[in-house]
Amino acid sequence: MIERRELRLSVPSPGGDPWYMAGWLSLPEVPARNELQVLLHGATYDHRYWDWPVESEAYSYVRFAAEAGCATLAVDRIGSGASSRPPGRENTVRAQARALGRVVEDAKSGALVGHAFDRVVLVGHSFGSILAAAEAAWFGGVDAVVMIGLLGIGSSAQDDDPRADVAFQPVAQDAGVRHLTGLVDDAYLTMRAEFRVPLLYASDNCDPDVVALDERIKGVVTRGEVSDMGTAAAATKDIKVPTLVMVGEYDAMEADPDGDGDGDGDGSTYSAVRRAEGLAPEGFEFVVVPGVGHNINLHRDAPVAFRRIGAWLDSVSGH
């Protein structure tokens, strides 16, 4: 039996008035250890990326973790899902990292759910990995970090990255999220439909119904988040706790087609990982998951990645 609770967490904002972060806490019947994993989704997603609403036995990391005795808190990042939607330019990675730092503090003090966790782990996907790296490097308090779909070190991400205007468009221009018109400002963006499969999937290893649902329930990213994403990704090098970095073999966002210009890049994520390994601090471990693209959780081989994450967390916890 899994105990689930829906939380509404008050967190600090740059303007002083609180933001509210929605979270879904899942507690196993028999905990493996006194640890909380905070799950951070990527751009244009919400907490459902971690707890996929159909075929959860195949695609839900929350279910996998609970069955392994691990507590999780899957949040809607600020600006997404059921969380506060402040002006898009104010919703930077640094502001979100500060807010996330409060969640970490409260988890360890017992203020979050009336129980103090000995360990807190940040588990991010894509933009969620940028946020995890930023919180761990700038504010700390966590015991381990899992970054999925982002190498961080040597990342090509830039502040105010011009590629955002290629793959994304304002909410008002996309019928799929037009229901948000009037609820968010023009600094909220969503992914253009034609980019979803090429950027996020290895199409021969995913269910077309999963991809179709992904498009139907897609969310947003803000100009504020894009404004400092390069600085935040570069903060990966300053993480001082054990860190697992996991990318898919066919992750179009993390492949290394050109290397550093010396001709040794082979166009693969394997090449990108080799380069990152040479720059990484002590305590980093890199994994390439065969046969999958950027959205590792939403491929048929997702359980392979889930088991690898679980085994690594066991190893760094001393369990």
Explain what this protein looks like in three dimensions.
This protein has 319 residues and is α/β, with parallel strands linked by helices. The protein has a single domain (3-159, 224-317), classed as Rossmann fold, CATH 3.40.50.1820. It contains eleven helices and eleven strands. The longest helix is centred in the N-terminal third of the chain and has 17 residues, at 93-109. It is globular.
In short:
The protein has 319 residues and is α/β, with parallel strands linked by helices. Helices cover 29% and strands 19% of the residues. The chain has helices spanning 56-59, 61-67, 93-109, 127-138, 164-167, 196-200, 208-216, 223-227, 229-234, 269-277, 302-317; strands spanning 3-11, 19-27, 35-40, 71-75, 119-125, 144-148, 168-170, 188-191, 221-222, 243-248, 284-289.
Number of strands: 11
Distance between the termini: 22 Å
Strand content: 15-25%
Q: Specify the structural class.
A: alpha/beta
Order of strands in the sheet with the most strands? 1-2-4-3-5-6-10-11
**Rg, Cα atoms, Å:** 18 Å
Number of helices: 11
Helix content: 25-40%
Mean pLDDT: 94
**If you consult CATH, what is the topology?**
Rossmann fold
* CATH class placement: Alpha Beta
Shape: globular
> Helices and strands, in N-to-C order?
EEEHHEHEHEHEEHHEHHEHEH
Q: Which architecture name does CATH use?
A: 3-Layer(aba) Sandwich
Largest sheet: 8 strands, mixed
